[in-house]
Design brief:
With 319 residues, the chain is of the alpha/beta class. It has two domains: 252 residues, Spore Coat Polysaccharide Biosynthesis Protein SpsA, Chain A, CATH 3.90.550.10; 44 residues, no CATH class. It is built from twelve helices and 13 strands. A nine-stranded mixed beta sheet has the order 5-4-1-6-11-8-12-10-9. Strands 2-3 form a two-stranded antiparallel sheet. The radius of gyration is 20 Å and the shape is globular.
Length: 319
């Protein structure tokens, strides 16, 4: 069994749901508290022991590469001004020399195609795949939990979470086989956006994967699927049908879809509440804004959904 040393981050998306903010700033560089979304996801990978970070980029994404590089003028200014804490934070977040690689996806052909673009950098090794839109708050991180399972089972690993049955049709769903411990189970089937009533379970794929290199053989000949794009789920189904083992991990943690405005706002609230300095103050502010009986501002349907999410986050924090 080979160690998981490399992780792929598909960051070529246009971020159209966040226009005009993403007209000049990549959506992966929008901040949750004081860190870009991509930094949170890279930190999750680093905690899991990842040694090589592979970014599949597109046009106008150069700022992501700059973020994971040194900025000598900034560092020297901080040093002269005695800002040692800020300087140490930048040093801590910076990958070591040679640990990052960047490759281009010249056309938006889907997630499967983006992963295929990383094939020369991953080589003949299993690798982790982390979708930057999906921010997962957990201790230990989601990928660390997955690697712990991988070290027992080998094969391919998919992070899954349980949703209400009426929501399953929006996602990829998996079928359950025999269990491995209290977190993992063998995946018997996968269906991308199943028709209502035909879903194999209410467990959905959550944007974290460990994949064997044979996935590239299937991606190389994969035909466009949903949305006219090359889908990673279609290639995984083909790999499963070829006889490779797939395991699902019901990880401990909360997922925030930062590709949506509501998920992005929820992530800022959840991570803000978890911050040792900001958390207590933010809790008091949210308690005033969302206190029972207070009329909701005229902000359309999203405010109601946000109220529900905030109330759930606050109840978890209190617990």
């Amino acid at each position: 069994m080979k160690k998981i040393r490399k992780a792929v981050f598909p960051v070529a998306g246009l971020g159209t749901r966040f226009l005009p903010a993403t007209k000049a700033v990549p959506k992966e560089m929008l901040t949750v508290i004081d860190r870009p979304v991509i930094q949170w996801v890279v930190d999750e990978a680093r905690e899991a022991g990842i040694e090589h970070f592979i970014f599949v980029t597109g046009r106008n994404k150069g700022v992501i590469e700059d973020h994971f590089d040194r900025q000598f003028e900034l560092e020297e200014t901080l040093r002269r001004r005695g800002k040692t804490q800020a300087l140490e934070m930048l040093e801590r977040d910076l990958p070591q020399a040679g640990q990052t690689s960047f490759t281009r996806q010249q056309e938006p052909k889907g997630l499967g195609h983006a992963v295929w673009c990383a094939r020369e950098l991953t080589g003949e090794e299993p690798f982790a795949l982390l979708l930057p839109d999906m921010l997962i708050q957990g201790r230990p991180g989601c990928l660390k939990q997955m690697i712990d399972v991988y070290e027992q089972t080998g094969g391919n690993i998919i992070a899954v979470e349980e949703v209400h049955p009426e929501e399953v049709h929006k996602y990829g769903s998996v079928g359950m086989g025999r269990t491995q411990g209290d977190k993992a189970f063998q995946i018997t089937s996968m269906v991308e956006k199943p028709d209502p009533g035909k879903e194999p379970s209410n467990l959905i794929i959550s944007g974290r994967y460990i994949l064997q290199p044979e996935i590239f053989d299937h991606l190389a000949r994969q035909k466009p699927g949903a949305g006219g794009e090359i889908q990673i789920t279609d290639a995984m189904i083909a790999l499963l049908e070829s006889g490779q083992d797939f395991w699902g991990v019901k990880y401990e943690g909360e997922t925030y879809d930062c590709g949506s405005k509501l998920g992005f706002l929820s992530a800022n609230i959840a991570f803000g509440l978890a911050d040792g300095h900001l958390g207590p103050m933010l809790h008091d502010i949210l308690g005033q804004i969302f206190k029972p009986g207070r009329a909701a501002p005229a902000a359309g349907g999203m405010h109601g959904n946000l109220r529900e999410k905030v109330e759930r986050i606050l109840s978890r924090t209190a617990a």
